[in-house]
Design goal:
globular, four-stranded antiparallel beta sheet, 20% strand, alpha/beta, 46% helix, 223 residues, five-stranded parallel beta sheet, 12 strands
Length: 223
């Protein structure tokens, strides 16, 4: 694990909790050190604060994901939706808004790792729904012949929808089956789903996923 957090008290507390869970943890306290630590240690997961000296967590995430795909749990003191969308857009898989409990943080870390493990076991296949094409094995997506660059969680979310075209997926089910969260129905969980849906619409078309008010979402691409 790599924890990139400039507040050393918070960083040490996160590291202590993750070590208690059995993980090896490296620490970095600014943007350049975070990127360097990722290159040196190649962690399985990165816990990354948004506000960092040197350059911010968004730039750290962008540079890390450009080199190799790795799950990123972003920490932010700002709950503004634009900031969250930017974080998700540069490759963050999930986020927590400060202050947060260590119990929730460790639950999110375990969930991200389970999702990565599950994706590695998924047999390769190709899904074609109308003009939407998904190569599960190579993790490539295109619509109307135009390739889209999706983050790992966006890809997994799209595949979940594509395996159930037109079926309404409640937010709680998406959190359980895509995010693999043990804690469901929270306000932050709902916002995570909504933010990733907005990202998919932005990258693949606003008509791709239909909102079913009060319930969830459904994929609208014809089969």
């Amino acid at each position: 694990m790599l924890v990139v957090e400039d507040d050393r008290t918070i960083a040490d507390a996160i590291a202590a909790r993750l070590r208690a869970e059995g993980f090896t943890v490296e620490l970095a306290h600014d943007g350049p050190a975070g990127v360097a630590a990722d290159v040196e240690h190649e962690p399985e997961l990165v816990v990354l604060d948004v506000m960092l000296p040197g350059f911010d967590g968004l730039e750290v995430c962008r540079r890390i994901q450009a080199r190799r795909p790795v799950p990123v749990l972003m920490l932010t003191a700002r709950a503004d939706e634009t900031d969250l969308l930017v974080g998700l857009g540069v490759g963050a898989d999930d986020y927590l808004t400060k202050p947060f409990s260590m119990r929730v943080l460790t639950a999110r870390v375990h969930a991200l790792l389970r999702r990565v493990e599950r994706a590695a076991r998924t047999p390769g296949t190709r899904i074609v729904l109308g003009d939407l094409e998904i190569d599960v094995d190579e993790r490539r997506v295109s619509r109307a012949g135009v390739a889209a660059q999706l983050t790992p969680i966006e890809f997994d979310l799209l595949v979940h929808f594509a395996k159930r075209p037109r079926a309404v997926q409640p937010r709680e089910r998406l959190l359980a089956e895509v995010w693999d969260w043990d804690v469901h129905g929270s306000a932050s969980g709902t916002r995570a789903v909504d933010s990733h849906i907005k990202a998919l619409r932005r990258k693949l078309g606003a008509d791709l996923i239909r909102t079913v008010h009060g319930v969830g979402y459904a994929l609208e691409v014809g089969s």
